[in-house]
Amino acid sequence: MLSTGALRTHLLAxxxxxPVATSRExxxxxxxxxxxxxxxxxxxxxxxxxxxxxxxxxxxxxKCGVSADPGHxxxxxxxxxxxxxxxxxxxxxxxxxxxxxxxxVLLGTGHPHRLLGFYAALADALSAAGCAVLTPAHGRRxxxxxxxxxxxxxxxxxxxxxxxxxxxxxxxxxxxxVHTHSxxxxxxxxxxxxxxGGPLPELVVGDHGxxxxxxxxxxxxxxxxxxxxxxxFVGEAEGVVSVAVPLDDAVRxxxxxxxxxxxxxxxxxxx
Length: 271
What we know:
Elements: H1 4-13, E1 18-23, H2 24-35, H3 39-42, H4 53-63, E2 76-79, H5 81-101, E3 105-108, H6 112-128, E4 141-146, E5 149-158, E6 161-165, H7 184-195, E7 203-207, H8 208-216, E8 221-225, H9 230-237, E9 243-246, H10 257-266
Parallel strand pairs: 3-7, 7-8, 8-9
Antiparallel strand pairs: 1-2, 4-5, 5-6
Helix pairs in contact: 4-9, 5-10, 6-10, 7-8
């Protein structure tokens, strides 16, 4: 079993926590957009509170460990590894509860190139524990507004993890997919599950719009989030998101393997 100390060392060495690749400029831009209620930063969340930029910075300092100083406007952002570890424990506990109940679950990612393996391992472990891992709306079309205009994608599942791909880009078992923050894929998946009479997920696991979109619709949602993803942490603060884990969500995919082992051990789901 990977110890907490060993995982802390790995988080820092892999730059999953500590100084991360996300720049302060990127994070502050996201905080400004969130305060302005720009959909690109809300990613499916409809906040109840009035979140000014200063409020968002303060929350992100508490939840992630970034600088609380609005005058700190450049350099690399920092994530406190202790906050990551605490959130990973809470994340694992939600998985353990779902496993004990044999609850239906839905997993999806906007970072398929980086995080597919992490979520796929969770899907395998939850399935082995008796959970139905849902795959609604497979192959359905979803139109997403991007910085390049409106783009049409297909919702697909690889190893029972949802992602979106450009039409014609699929190869069986291929992890290639589109990086997206949009909540539209999870809305499509949930609507499709409801259309056929369920089952509906009792837990949604993922990142970006998968978490905020599901949480906003009343589904329990947990996920991973970088320092420029304030919506998940605001959602957690307002009780819409159950757990948001602060870490860099775009490092090499194999760097997430120790996190996978740690979470599965903590959730008593190791196979």
